[in-house]
Every structure is written in structure tokens, then in C-alpha cells.
Design a protein that fits this description.
268 residues, alpha/beta, TIM Barrel, 21% strand, globular
């Protein structure tokens, strides 16, 4: 069984296991600074040194602390890595977040991200959440304007339904979608299938399916000495060629275990 290990976003070839920085770069409740900045930077750099070339962050993580840490971690590898960030969500206390998709707010958000990431253009910028009070066409229309201004290279949307994706596509070229997706959580399967049909990268956040495998799969995994994390990532690699997972970890051991999922050959 052959698994494609990369997928194209524009002219950039993304390795299909990326790195999500939400937890490694912030404190409890996705709030404040990481408890171990040195370790966080080391893990992100180890990921890059072992082939990871897609790093995911957001201004809401911290807020802001994740983008600052990612910039520092990625600095020596800036030309080798696509950093994706997001705007349109407001972190106002530990464990709590609100949507704000107003074009004026998004203008403020992207200018802040550009400054924190010390970049003139963001490789991939997501509308983090759809604001129920603002039509998605208006929010994505603002991102399209920022793209024309040279502040965004590729536009993405996150945490969206199929209907919202289709509406967004009427006002801009959507070049990536990021939603939760795993063996256990298939709420957005229709969105995944739509992106597969349209050859759009689907970035699967929260990709590890815990306590959801049947006995047959677990027996196979145990025989092959495969962890449930690896089982989950391998399932995503085999689901569709455009699915890119972004597991996050603060452990180099778990990082290397995740990356070993490329080599797993198991029938689901």
C-alpha cells in the first residue's frame, strides 16, 4: 500500500504531517506563555529538521504568544517552512474564545500577525472562525483584499461547514480548509470530500483518535508495535491524498513517533 507523503498548496509541496503549536506554545487553557519555552523551540526545530515543513499557529493562541514563539523557532529555517496563522477569533480568558469576522477587526488582526511573525507576507492565512453576525462572504472578502495588497499569499478558512465553504468560494480562491477530523470525529466528512474533489489541502486539526478503535485494529496495531497515535495519523494519510494532519506535542519522543506514521502499512 503506497501513501503519498506530500500535497501541493500553490507552488509549495507540503509534507502531510505538519505541526500544530497550540499546546506547546501556550499555558493551560491555551492562555499565556508556555511553561518551557526552551523545550518548545527545541521540539519545533526538531520537527523541521526531520522533514516537517508546515507549522500551524494563530493569534488567539496565548493570545499572541504562539506566533511570537513560532517566529523565534522557525527563524533559522524561514525559507524552508510554510507558517500558517489565523485571525478572526478573540481569546479573552483561559479556555474561552469568541468569533470576530468584521473586516475592520481582521485588518487589525493581520497587521498584528505580520508584526509578530516578522514577515511582509503570510504564506497561509485562515479565517479562524465564522462570525455568526457577519456573512462569511464579508470576512473572506476582507482576506481577498489583504491578498491583493500582498499581505497574504494563500487564503484559508477554518471550522466551517460545507455550505460556508461554498459561500466563501464565491468571493475568493480558497486554498486550504482546516477543521477537526479523525477516525473518531467525522463531523466534517462532507467538507473533506469536497476539498478532495476540488484538490484543496484539508488540514486536520485534533487528528488523534483516542479510545475509538475496534478490537481488530488494536490487535493488528499491537502485533506491529504501533501506537494509537500512529494508527490515527496513518488512517488520515490513507483517507485521501489532500489530508494533512497537524498533531502537536511537547515531547521529542512523541514527535518522532508521529513522524514514523509515514512508514506504517496497515489495512483499516
Amino acid at each position: 500500500m503506497k501513501t503519498d507523503t506530500t500535497f501541493k498548496l500553490g507552488d509549495f509541496e507540503i509534507n502531510r504531517i505538519g505541526f500544530g503549536t497550540m499546546r506547546v506554545s501556550t499555558g493551560a487553557g491555551i492562555w499565556g506563555d508556555t511553561l518551557n519555552k526552551e523545550n518548545a523551540i527545541k521540539v519545533i526545530r526538531t520537527a523541521i529538521e526531520n522533514g516537517v515543513n508546515f507549522i500551524d499557529t494563530a493569534d488567539a493562541y496565548g493570545p499572541y504568544t504562539s506566533e511570537l514563539l513560532v517566529e523565534e523557532a522557525v527563524r533559522p529555517f524561514k525559507d524552508q517552512v510554510m507558517v500558517a496563522t489565523k485571525g478572526g477569533a478573540v481569546k479573552y480568558k483561559p479556555g474561552a474564545i469568541l468569533s470576530n469576522g468584521h473586516p475592520y477587526y481582521l485588518r487589525t488582526a493581520i497587521e498584528g500577525s505580520l508584526k509578530r511573525l516578522q514577515s511582509e507576507i503570510i504564506g497561509l492565512y485562515f479565517l479562524h472562525r465564522v462570525d455568526p453576525n457577519i456573512p462569511i462572504e464579508e470576512s473572506v472578502g476582507a482576506l481577498s483584499q489583504f491578498q491583493k495588497e500582498g499581505k497574504i499569499k494563500h487564503i484559508g478558512i477554518s471550522n466551517v461547514t460545507l455550505e460556508q465553504l461554498e459561500k466563501a468560494q464565491t468571493v475568493a480562491k480558497i486554498e486550504a480548509v482546516q477543521n477537526a477530523f479523525s477516525f473518531k470525529d467525522r463531523r466534517y466528512e462532507a467538507v473533506v470530500n469536497k476539498t478532495t474533489k476540488d484538490c484543496i489541502p484539508f488540514i486536520a486539526h485534533t487528528p488523534v483518535a483516542k479510545n475509538s478503535w475496534d478490537d481488530n485494529a488494536l490487535v493488528k496495531a499491537q502485533k506491529e508495535n504501533i501506537s494509537t497515535n500512529q494508527l490515527s495519523l496513518s488512517w488520515l494519510l490513507n483517507y485521501a491524498p489532500n489530508v494533512i494532519s497537524i498533531p502537536g506535542t511537547s515531547s521529542e519522543k512523541h514527535l518522532m513517533e508521529n513522524l514514523a506514521s509515514y512508514a506504517i502499512r496497515i489495512e483499516f
